[in-house]
Write a structure and sequence with these properties.
Blueprint (H helix, E strand, L loop, with lengths): L1 E5 L14 H12 L3 E4 L4 E6 L2 E6 L6 H12 L6 E7 L6 E6 L7 H10 L4 E6 L9 H5 L5 H8 L2 H8 L5 H4 L2 E2 L2
Parallel strand pairs: 1-4, 1-5, 5-7
Antiparallel strand pairs: 2-3, 3-4, 6-7, 6-8
Helix pairs in contact: 1-6, 2-3
């Protein structure tokens, strides 16, 4: 069993935010893999298709680790079978990077997951670009993608779908430098 987690914030107001790129990817994967909803009792919306579980935590970004821990424990999923899809402001818009383990890079969703299960899980880092000034980061990640940016991001989802099925080879096969 593999757990694929998309980080984001619940609610229509956040739907197209840069910070919600993980939720957008999970929505694509749910459709692509024809996943069925399992439950909303795991501090998130959980879907299943074959060997894959797809999770959209409803705890808000900063508490994402709570939802991941509940599902991990219930299904007894080892960390190496957990893949977290998240936004990354240190990557150019449309870049994709894959890695296992490492630090949070200041990302509060990853900090929460690290505090609940440790940091030895896979990450799919989706580049959303960076604002000009550091003090603009919060407003930037909580702002919506522009139409052309959203098209760029949507183009990454088929690549992410291939990568989750072959995550060990993803760093060398599916990394992308941007749109």
């Amino acid at each position: 069993m593999k757990l694929i987690v998309g980080l984001g914030n619940p609610g229509q107001k956040y739907e197209k935010n840069r910070h919600n790129v993980g939720f957008l990817a999970i929505d694509y994967l749910i459709d692509k893999f024809n996943a069925s909803k399992v439950s909303s009792k795991f501090k998130g919306d959980l879907y299943k298709a074959g060997e894959y579980l797809f999770l959209k935590p409803t705890t808000y970004m900063n508490l994402s680790g709570e939802a991941v821990r509940v599902v991990k424990d219930f299904y007894k999923i080892p960390n190496e079978e957990i893949i977290v899809i998240h936004d990354d402001i240190d990557l150019k818009l449309g870049a994709l990077k894959f890695k296992r383990g490492g630090g949070s890079g200041g990302h509060n969703g990853l900090k929460s997951i690290d505090s609940h299960i440790g940091n030895d899980y896979w990450r799919i880092r989706v580049g959303v670009g960076r604002p000009e000034r550091k003090e603009e980061v919060v407003n930037y990640v909580l702002s919506d993608f522009k139409d052309n940016e959203m098209e760029c991001i949507k183009g990454l989802f088929p690549i992410i779908a291939k990568a989750v099925g072959n995550i060990q080879e993803a760093p060398s096969r599916y990394s992308k430098k941007g749109c």
